[in-house]
Design a protein that fits this description.
Blueprint (H helix, E strand, L loop, with lengths): L3 E10 L2 E11 L3 E6 L6 H8 L7 E6 L2 E2 L2 H7 E4 L11 H11 L4 H10 L15 H14 L4 E5 L7 H16 L3 E5 L3 H7 L2 E6 L2 E5 L4 H13 L9
Parallel strand pairs: 3-8, 3-9, 6-7, 7-8
Antiparallel strand pairs: 1-2, 1-4, 4-5, 9-10
Bound molecules: adenosine-5'-triphosphate (ATP).
């Protein structure tokens, strides 16, 4: 049974096609990247998988089931961009909300918040948080739910080296512990470090790409998106 299977996906915003007969099949747990320039459809793809958007046609199945709200609630944890938090709330409010909704033990919440260094600021209001603090909270919420499929939208944005190391380790660990992480990011070096496989969104399709390091991934990116000749130069 596939963890995630997308078949014949067609989606457009008004007249703008984002996916045309796109396919994707993930059968093994691990960390998978989604790469594409701004405005190509990475967030749209995650929103379609999470059932926030509905395709014009095609099917999306998670663990062999259509992505109804009940299926998504059971099998998916979606960390949307950190901008979605309400600034008047405290990190603690969000942690409690998800803890109650998913019946998560206090021990599990504590283990995740400690691992991600959220305990130091969880009692403060979100408006006082830096970008890195919001990213840590976002990931803590996504992880404590313990769903088999994690969708992460730009979890590596705006992080200092320490935060980046914590989040990088956490994502790699998830992939090794039988979870599947689908991660949209522009950070090609980081993607190369944490992913087992990546996909580019090109020509309204989801194409698998193989690479072994960030430089190769950057070359692939140029090949698909910049139309620039490869001069062999790296900066
Ligand atoms: N609600 C909407 N209504 C109309 N068009 C939209 C809507 N949301 C997104 N779009 C358009 O769909 C396209 C894909 O958007 P999406 O946010 O999925 O891109 P992205 O690859 O995640 O971009 P970024 O890297 O900037 O986050 C963009 O051209 C965007 O303008």
């Amino acid at each position: 049974m596939a963890i995630l299977e997308i078949k014949g996906l067609n989606f457009q915003f008004r007249k703008k096609p984002i996916f045309m007969d796109a396919q994707l099949m993930l059968t093994q747990p691990g960390v998978y990247g989604i790469v594409a320039p701004n405005g190509t459809g990475k967030s749209t793809m995650l929103n379609l998988i999470a059932g926030i958007l509905r395709p014009q046609s095609g099917t999306i199945q998670i663990m062999g089931k259509t992505n109804t709200p009940a299926t998504v609630f059971t099998y998916v944890s979606y960390a949307q961009s950190a901008e979605h938090f309400l600034s008047v709330m405290k990190g603690q409010d969000y942690l409690e909300l998800f803890q109650k909704a998913h019946h998560i033990s206090a021990e599990r919440v504590g283990a995740v918040t400690t691992r991600l260094g959220v305990d130091a600021f969880r009692q403060e209001r979100i408006r006082t948080y830096s970008m890195g603090m919001k990213q840590r909270l976002t990931l803590a919420i996504a992880l404590m739910v313990d769903a088999p499929l994690l969708l992460l939208d730009e979890p590596l944005n705006g992080l200092d080296p320490d935060s980046l190391a914590v989040i990088r380790r956490t994502i790699i660990q998830e992939g090794k512990s039988q979870h599947t992480v689908l991660l949209a990011s522009h950070n090609l070096d980081e993607l190369a470090r944490v992913t087992d496989q990546s996909f580019v969104l090109t020509d309204q399709q989801i194409q698998p790409v193989t690479f072994t390091n960030g430089i190769e991934l950057e070359k692939l990116y140029r090949h698909y998106f910049s139309g620039l000749e490869d001069t062999g130069e790296t900066v």
